[in-house]
UniProtKB/TrEMBL annotation:
Taxonomic source organism: Jannaschia seohaensis
One Pfam assignment: Zn_ribbon_PaaD
Biased composition (Pro residues): 1-10
Protein known as: Ring-1,2-phenylacetyl-CoA epoxidase subunit PaaD
Record-annotated MIP18 family-like domain positions: 31-91
Amino acid sequence: MVARPAPAPVPGALADRPVRRDGPPPATEGDVWALLSQIPDPEIPVISITDLGIVREVALDGRAVRVAITPTYSGCPATFVIAIAVEAALLDAGLTPTVTSRIDPPWTTDWLTEAAREKLRRYGIAPPATRGPEACPHCGATTVTQVSRHGSTPCKAQWRCDACAEPFDYFKCH
Ligand SMILES: [Zn+2]
């Protein structure tokens, strides 16, 4: 459960008005999934949170919707940001969301979709693999060397290609 303080009521302002939006609220769980698939991962914006595989459950009952999210790893700072983005998107869509965090079973990189892996490669990030990056995302060479265990975000490590000499990020979370 993500705790968020309720906004203070503003006298005579929007607080008591019904939610108005252009289209009808999502009517099916598929509609909700489609909406969530538009929310980017805050650390790697080329992939969505559904690409990442962290949305584990969507349950729609009228306008009430429950969404369970699994952090990519315990204490991942992006998880809170993602929960807020999900809540805001569902509120904007006219739904009443309850966003929960589900840590069991833990997220694994196997939950990344194949589409997400391809998007990562095109963005210059080597997708996760059991024994480190399988190939340079720039030239495809398989001779690669780790430069640093730490990358631009906690989920990434710095590697370099021995063939084209380009550095690249490796998505290491699992
Ligand atoms: Zn290369």
